[in-house]
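pinned: reference chain
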Amino acid sequence: MTNTIMNTYARQDVTFERGDGVYLWDTEGNQYIDALSGIAVCALGHSHPDITKAITEQASQLIHTSNIYRIRSQELLADKLAEISGMDNVFFGNSGAEANEAAIKLARLFGHNKGIQAPEIIVTDKSFHGRTLATLSATGNRAIHAGFEPLVHGFIRVPYNDIETIKQVASRSKNVAAILVEPIQGESGINIPDDNYLNEIRSVCDQNDWLMMLDEIQTGMCRTGQWFSHQHNKITPDVMTLAKSLGNGLPIGACLAHGKAASLFQPGNHGSTYGGNPLACHVASQVITTLENLNTNQHVEKMGEYFLNELNKHLGDYDNVIDIRGSGLMLAIELDRPCTKLVAAGIENGILINVASQNRIRLLPPLIISKTQIDEVISKLVPLISRFLLD
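pinned: its structure tokens
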């Protein structure tokens, strides 16, 4: 392992050489079933022919020109995203953190335009919004803050899935401009709120003239059985951020705006050198087209239900299993003890998983996964957990 890469990741000692669908192969020729998909990125799996073709076609024509000029593939992608989301316009960056930075700037601009000198944004405990200075300040995880103080000011933190505390903030603070929240918290272990949580937030935002901003970076692009998770609640946010599955592995982020948020940015307010380049946008458009052609939302709904039922059938009676939960193909098994060692054990047994918050096994498989492949995951994962709980 080289010493010339900064020591920012606790990497597993495996190097992947190629992938096909839900499978990866390492440099030694060992095969793995991927139940993580690059942390909810490779929604269409590895080496999908549609995506490979799109990359090859666009790379052979044009990769970058800059946003000094019109970019046709960017305009086409923006139109597609507006159509499936009901949002009005889009700013393109290169990552989820950049998308959330854009959302934070929109909220501050909105507040200043209302005459608020120090606009504040309500965020939640156990959230994750990125690792830039502003987005880590918005993130509700002290471990991510440590060592990077002073944090960016202007965030009010409340418990997740607690609408009453948000109402209390509304009654006492005149500086709030927006709320930034994940429809389902991913990085902290698939925390799923009450069914009406987002509807209640929408109502509070409407009553107080705040922007409702949803971080759909992990939940978006069919992960929960709708294009975007908030569509289960039949609401429209003022701002929504995307990344991860949007490019199926090619870096791209997007900040979408609606209504009063859509006209806030003007030339000079924000920008990105690489953001929305021809290659990334052409590929992202193909991702959307392929997801549509595969009827992915219906498939995810069926596979998610099957996966959750199988996990409950095999692990639901274990005293050491606190909870098994999921929405679409975004699932978690919460144990009563730290279980981070299961990641390395999974690699030894040919399965790729993740552990969040020390004790929550997080499963984010490619959205193209079949019942047979879910059975394969179950056949590897259940004995792994059983052995771990018996040790």
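why pinned: The CA atoms of residues 16 and 26 lie 4 Å apart. Residues 16-34+295-390 form a domain with the Aspartate Aminotransferase, domain 1 fold (CATH 3.90.1150.10).
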